[in-house]
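Chains adopt folds. We examine one example:
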Amino acid sequence: MLSYRHGFHAGNHADVLKHLTLVQILAHLTQKPTPLRVIDTHAGAGRYRLDTETAQKLNEHQNGIVRLWKERKTSGLPSAVRAYLTLVAALNGNGETLAHYPGSPWFARHLLRPQDRLHLFELHGNEFRNLARNFQGAGRTVALSPEDGLSHLKALLPPPSRRGLILLDPSYETASDYARLPESVRDALKRFPTGICMVWLPLLARREARQLPERLKRLAPDWLYASLQVRAAPSDGIGLYGSALWIANPPWTLAGTLAETLPWLAHHLAQDATATGRVETSTFSCAHPASSC
């Protein structure tokens, strides 16, 4: 039974890290004219209104995109933050009011070119209907599938041009998500060893969540791990206290960009004094506490 709906969490600190990084990867990939394919295995609705009852039930965007939105006109923004906020502003008519938040599919479609292809999977019935509505008239460059992305990923790999990005962002509702994900990544990299594979990870106290990054690091010789902890791990072991990304075959510039950006994000999205940003690759590791900003 699928119950997760991203609308309750749209624009939170985890979305900020994920989408800011996604923008950087797509900017890198689109520098070359060769076509590329982007596959999003858990697309959600594609974009979200922040003034709905759903978004305001948890109000997570208040400690995420809303904090950054207030900083968008200040000088000294990290370049990655500015690029990300520019796209969020574009969805909101470049006005002063933040009413909409883009999901990963919106960022991808906005940055991809006519020669590129975007394939979006979403199994949740209501979310898929919203996704289809939001992407109505997208044309042949976007394919929508109301199916389990992990199960159908292998049929799309490798893309004809041997260039592309796979985004895996499951809900982690059940233990099976933690078990299936590494196997899906292993198979994807076997079929498409040069592809960029980006996995979103929750920072949670549960054992499966703590073990997952190390399991992923064994799957590729070239990887990047970036984490953003916004508060201390809860004493009762319940609740998200940050998020992370594991990326296979990252763009060569990404580690430096995130090393510059994560201290700023940790400072501005901190919910207590333990907030920290960390960048680790297959060759180096560096942590950035919010207090260093």
Q: What stands out?
A: Residues 6-292 form a domain with the Rossmann fold fold (CATH 3.40.50.150). Residues 13-29 form the longest helix (17 residues). The chain has one domain: 6-292.
